[in-house]
């Protein structure tokens, strides 16, 4: 396993993130540096034939170049760039891939939905707070997709990626993201979420006592708002986001126009337009699985990629170009 820093860039639908990591104690992962840039490259993702816009690709490239500077500043030896739902689903995703290579010299790896879900699972099992869990669910709701995993005896039993991301569903069901989310629109999002879940291969197969872990921006944002209401920092807030918390946040936020939502402490302004739909999706997911809440974990896709990178190219496949 590499003992030098590795950097992973996660090019998501809503944000682009970096993790610079070192091997941790007992085979874990030590986060040396993290940063998130809200780039929203996924505008138009809900269309029948989604395309990345020139503006979205430009925002994405600028964010990638800024984060690569961070990787160099932290002396990362290996740098891995991966893209998820927005680039995976776009008809011109390979054009963006080529632009990234031309601008940075780094190859962009476009993950399949199955690869994304499995790497989230790999990252989650490196979370020290999850070491006591054996049979549990994990859900990662992002801008483009929802990853659903079931672990039995700490091994992934199911890993499914569904097109239920909050950017995608906001475009599909919200008539005006700058205005309130109406009760009718909430009902449409919930009905669509139930249908996609029912039609998928994912099944709530674990005992009723199974814990559900929530990673990704939606659950983390909900925890952040709750933390702000309690006068706490995100990292110090209780990790459990209850179903009742989701309903309370939705009742508070859905009737507000975007400008008012952007003033809510703990809610990043760049996510305020899609967050009410994210709350509906999470609440519907929890109700479908008879889940009382989500235990938030920061150990998501980036940590799985870091574990893969730290294992070395012989075990992890093509990671991109080594940093100079």
Task: Identify the notable features of this structure and list them briefly.
324 residues; alpha/beta; six-stranded mixed β-sheet; 12 helices; 40% helix; globular
Q: Could you explain how this protein is built, in words?
A:
The protein has 324 residues and is α/β, with parallel strands linked by helices. It has two domains: 6-114 and 301-316, 2-Layer Sandwich (Nucleotidyltransferase, domain 5); 129-296, Nucleotidyltransferase, domain 5, CATH 3.30.420. 40% of the residues lie in helices and 21% in strands. It has twelve helices and eleven strands. The chain has helices at residues 54-73, 85-89, 93-104, 113-124, 166-173, 183-199, 217-229, 243-253, 258-261, 275-288, 301-311, 313-316; strands at 6-11, 15-23, 29-38, 78-83, 108-110, 136-141, 146-152, 155-162, 211-215, 240-242, 293-296. A six-stranded mixed beta sheet has the order 8-7-6-9-11-10, with helices on both faces. α4 packs across α11 (301-311) and α5 (166-173) crosses α10. It is globular and about 50 Å long. The two termini are 20 Å apart.
Topology summary:
Layout: E1 6-11, E2 15-23, E3 29-38, H1 54-73, E4 78-83, H2 85-89, H3 93-104, E5 108-110, H4 113-124, E6 136-141, E7 146-152, E8 155-162, H5 166-173, H6 183-199, E9 211-215, H7 217-229, E10 240-242, H8 243-253, H9 258-261, H10 275-288, E11 293-296, H11 301-311, H12 313-316
Parallel strand pairs: 1-4, 4-5, 6-9, 9-11
Antiparallel strand pairs: 1-2, 2-3, 6-7, 7-8, 10-11
